[in-house]
Specification:
There is one protein chain. The chain is built from 11 helices and 7 strands. It has about 280 residues and is of the alpha/beta class. The chain has a 7-stranded parallel sheet, with helices on both faces. Helix 4 (about 95-110) links the parallel strand 3 (about 85-90) and strand 4. The protein is globular. The relative contact order is 0.14.
């Protein structure tokens, strides 16, 4: 079994975002220049591709409340027959703190979602990722026992309203992890290039999880796997970031490490099952 902890799908009205995602990183990273985009265009295509790669379930990280990427559209998909193999996180992009909290309450009450997803550079106004003003968001997550997935990488930092190399440094999550030990914090992109720093923070705080997705193939990315072999086996998650990269590419690079069966099981599905609180 494999659970993919980060992907997009061409659900109804999200088709344009899915198509854009196929080539969104072309020309951004030379490591990805020669990747052929996935040919999938429909949910059925994606499900077939998941089957080919042995992916049983996937997590769709929500975006916001705009048509074409809305939580409402994601909720409708998750409750449809085609949504049975997907888990959704409530998206709080492009929102103020008050709007984000209201959105978490609105969709948390439905019982459909399994977490909250945020890209910090989209917070209005732009706010340090560990700032106390964001505490109502963390507290709303705890109210529904939702893990909080925050996307941190240099790319996110450079595309923020005020580009700052240190903006996504994982040390800024220390205050949050200490104040809210019951809040499960997932660092999508694993804060690359702050590889050692994110590993250090996760080592000190068992409620922090690392999800390096395709950054596993970037300089220093192998250290995430080495960390999992040396004590962080319960805090590393497999994610593809499909369709930005094809499933075959994502799976190949994780499997290339020839992980011991017990460690492979934790990275590919057991840690995800625990975070999602599912029994499958």
């Amino acid at each position: 079994m494999v659970i993919d902890f980060k992907m997009k799908a061409p659900i109804p009205k999200w088709e344009a975002m899915f198509e854009n995602g196929k080539t969104a990183l072309h020309g951004v990273f030379h490591q990805l220049e020669n990747l052929a985009p996935t040919k999938s265009s429909t949910v059925t295509d994606v499900l077939n591709e998941m089957d080919e790669q042995g992916i049983s379930y996937s997590v769709i990280l929500g975006r916001n409340n705009e048509q074409g990427s809305s939580n409402e559209e994601l909720q409708a998909f998750l409750t449809s027959p085609q949504g049975e193999r997907f888990f959704g996180f409530i998206g709080i992009e492009d929102m103020t703190v008050d709007e984000a909290v209201a959105t978490i309450h609105r969709y948390g009450k439905t019982g459909v979602f399994h977490g909250v997803a945020a890209i910090p550079s989209k917070i209005k106004p732009l706010t340090p990722i560990g700032d106390e003003s964001l505490d109502p968001i963390f507290e709303a997550c705890l109210e529904y026992d939702f893990p909080y997935c925050i996307t941190l990488s240099l790319l996110i930092s450079l595309t923020s309203e005020a580009p700052d190399y240190d903006y996504i440094h994982p040390k800024q999550l220390i205050r949050v992890a200490k104040k809210y030990p019951d809040l499960k914090i997932i660092i999508s992109h694993a804060a690359w290039p702050f590889v050692q720093e994110s590993i250090a923070v996760a080592t000190h705080f068992p409620n922090i999880y690392l999800c390096p997705d395709f950054y596993l193939t970037f300089p220093g990315g192998n250290q995430y796997i080495e960390a999992a072999k040396s004590g962080l086996e319960n805090q590393l998650l497999f994610a593809s970031r499909y369709p930005n990269v094809p499933y075959a590419y994502a799976i190949k690079h994780y499997q290339s490490y020839e992980l011991a069966p017990e460690l492979s099981a934790k990275i590919f599905y057991e840690n995800a099952k625990r975070l999602l609180k599912i029994d499958i």
